[in-house]
Amino acid sequence: MNSSTVELNSNPILKGISAELPLFDQIKPEHVLPAIDAELTQARKIVAQLTQIDDPDWDSLMLPLEVIEERLGRIWGPVGHLNAVCDSDELRPIYQQGVAKMTEWGSELGQNEELYAAIRKVSERDDFAFLSEERRQVVNHALRDFKLSGAELVGDDKTRFTEIQMRLSELATDFSQHVMDATRAFELHLTDQADVAGLPESVLASAAQRATQSEKLKESGKDGGWLITLDAPSYIPFMQFAENRNLRETMYREYVTRASSGELDNGPLINETLALRNEAALLLGFEHYAESSLASKMASDVDEVTGFLRELADKSKSIAQKEFAELQLFADTELSIDELQAWDIAFASEKLRLKTYAISQEELKPYFPEQNVINGMFGLVEKLYGIAIRERDDAPIWHESARYFEVFDTNSTQISAFYLDPYARAHKRGGAWMDECIVRWKRPDDSLQLPVAYLVCNFDAPVGDKPALWTHDEVTTLFHEFGHGLHHMLTTVSELGVSGIRGVPWDAVELPSQFMENFCWERQVIDLFAKHFETGETLPDTLFDKMLAAKNFQSAIIMLRQIEFALFDVLVHSQFDADGDQSVQGLLDQVRDEVSVFSPPAFNRFQNSFSHIFAGGYAAGYYSYKWAEVLSADVYATFEEEGVLNADTAARLRNELLSIGGSREIMDAFVAFRGRKPSVDALLRHCGLSD
User: 66 vs 581, which has greater pLDDT?
Assistant: First the structure.
């Protein structure tokens, strides 16, 4: 069907605006562009009318703008979600056209001088001080964002800024799709038992199931054996357990060179992205892109960020050097690997962990069956926050693996809902994330729109008649994403622009998620869900004690790895000159020389799949993970002091931090909860790096 023939009054995307939930089971690629075009046409008419108001106030100007934002979000959000979880050849070009249209709209709106002037008038009104704190924040954030969107630019500068934003959106989409395509392009089909020596039974079972489901193998007439892919649930355990060193090298090379050659090469995209980001920042009057990125974050400037990262590196490096020396010695004496290579590190580390603590992730998996973990996580947050979570089986979904849950408060009133899509599969973006489906909002008719979240992971699915069994690392990932979800779902803010995670500084948005990870190490929480999938036996004390002892295994190396990513990110967005002599790779090597204890081989092109900063929202903001980890560790220390399952402490956390969205300054909210400003002490203690 040609998209132009789609009847708008029957378009499921447009119908989804007023529906309880997006109509995922009805949306088709041909519905997308007509829906966007129809809504953008209407939005442009309304904005033109709004700019003609003589004396604008909240009700006459800001509220209609929120309506426009909400309607467009309800149209474009489900499309972006489907592109991430159900990518297809039919949807991809439509999605790219949609990205262009939405980017053009964003630039057009953000540079509308008349609209900018109208919002300034709202902020200058005598009664502005009498607006709620939420509404004042919405207006203040809007004025800030107008400046960052080029609203104060004129003439050729404004035109060029718009061109840059359009091109950057194209580059980000291409970057992400190149990584997805490169990840999907490689499959290692093994049929010799010797080639899978060392792989645990659960990993073999998943690999065998993957082989039976592979479209490529079916087309080539092959069957049986084991299929290893570059998706995390397949790649990571193979690198940890496979005894065949040559195959580990093959997998490593394929993984670290994704999107670095041929038509999928992201190298040129990186250079163009950096040059354009810097040019846009200069047009806005900033010294470089990092300065413009930090304008909406907690950190004040690049020096504060690099100083923070280097302080953590200084406190970690000597310990990391000892950890790596121990690993090298072990590999030489115990594994006959006289020269440790990058493809040996995960394997040797797992062997050393097993020898030191007599525990591995695979040994723990039988105690973490999917439904137990989910039920236990729900039980934890229900106890902490006095909520109830109930599954509903009649909601529209995009894949049979997706599930839908509703959240109720203490008085049995529904307050939010969420989708959970836990399994890795073809045509699904890798990694794990939380995203907005619907945002909490008091509508113009005074009815309350409840928030709905997407929680997406890429874990192994059930194999045969066995339930999905997850590693403790995957359990921690699930808790992390659910922490983001709670931030979105427990908000009590009614204004769209500062509800849930909106308006929250990027370097604070990881606080609720990293906070939740801590519970995965508490015995009383583990007991809620860690039960053997066959016997029902709770996790034995011996295993838990070993797990706890191994918690900070190579923690300094892990710390430096994250600092490496973060320091590279902030420096490449503040010091790198795309026209200069130094390459992106050269800058990354320089960072590694400063903070790392092991440099990867020269063929490693990690940056070519660094989607967080080149296709996500973390550009000049990857440091946020460590920044927020300081905050979250300090928040969790309160629970350690007052009781891990202390409902009163949790209520205070909910009231002061989780519920406020972007309506208050996060540092003020942190101090209100903790009674002081944050300290790095708790993080260092949790990581075993205290003096």
Answer: 66
